[in-house]
Amino acid sequence: MKKFKFEINYSKNLEEKIFQKLNHSGVAFIKNVISLKDLNNLQNIVKNSIRKNGERYFTILNPLNKEFNLLKEDKEFFLLSKNIAEKKLSRTIRKEDFLSVLRVITGDKTKEKSYQFHFDAYILTILIPIFIPQTQSDNGHLILYSNLRKKIRYSFINFLEKIFYQNYLSRTIIKNLLKKSINKNTIKLKPGNIYFFWGYQSLHANLPIDPKLLRSTLLLHFGTVHDNSFADKFIKKFRHRMELKNAQNHN
């Protein structure tokens, strides 16, 4: 990738439009902001990562510091995203308030990566689809129950919520409880578009993926809600250790 540019021209009007849309419906998306050439380049990066890591589920933390580093050159896009998160949190976003994650789901055990409902630790999540199966079912589209919770005053309560939501039993119960409403709360993802939502406030997961197919997304998180809390730092360190262990076990 020699150059990369989202087809977005920053303006205060666009910023306010997305901000209001997020507050009203919980999700906003911009169509066709990644050119076919740039999308092909992103897809080639994912293919190279699969050749390195194998045809399986894996994540790469902070790929914008590695494979996707040229995305950071689009200052207008990051100004837009940063301003939206700052407006919601009413504070300045620092370097440590940002996290990027490349997520790849393919091969065996893809079904285990579906319906994993959770809230993010960051206020704003931007989802960039790179590969999405173009099938009627088992396509991994986003399930989003937007703006379900307000900011939790105490970080420890947020920590307990994470423990509650992010275990097999709770996720099975939640899936069964929400079964009838999943279709109307599904966001159909299309590569070339980008999707904004309040990750901290919205319960979300993805639909199942056929193990023979590939789903890959780049997730950009802006604005840690519980700034400098011990509980959130513990969660992040634990997650990073698990991702590293997962990668080492398959190399």
Please explain how this structure is put together.
The structure is a single chain. The protein has a single domain (12-248), classed as Jelly Rolls (Sandwich), CATH 2.60.120.620. It is 35% helix and 21% strand. The chain is built from six helices and nine strands. It has a six-stranded antiparallel beta sheet with strand order 1-7-4-9-3-2. Helix 1 (12-25) crosses helix 3 and helix 4 runs parallel beside helix 6. The chain is globular.
Notable characteristics:
251 residues; three-stranded antiparallel beta sheet; 6 helices; globular
List the helices and strands and how they pair.
Elements: H1 12-25, E1 27-30, H2 36-53, E2 58-61, H3 75-89, E3 98-106, E4 122-131, E5 142-145, H4 155-165, H5 168-178, E6 186-187, E7 194-197, E8 203-206, E9 214-224, H6 230-248
Antiparallel strand pairs: 1-7, 2-3, 3-9, 4-7, 4-9, 5-6, 5-8
Overall structural class, as computed from helix and strand content, comes to alpha+beta
The CATH topology turns out to be Jelly Rolls
User: What is the CATH first-level class name?
Assistant: Mainly Beta
CATH H-level superfamily: q2cbj1_9rhob like domain
The appropriate CATH architecture is Sandwich
Number of helices: 6
Work out the strand percent. 15-25%
- Let me know the number of strands: 9
Order of helices and strands: HEHEHEEEHHEEEEH
Based on Cα principal axes, name the global outline. Answer: globular
User: How much helix is in the residues?
Assistant: 25-40%
For the residues shown, what is the average pLDDT? Answer: 86
Largest sheet: 6 strands, antiparallel
Radius of gyration: 17 Å
| Termini separation | 26 Å
Q: Identify low-pLDDT runs.
A: 247-251
Main sheet: which strands, in order across?
1-7-4-9-3-2
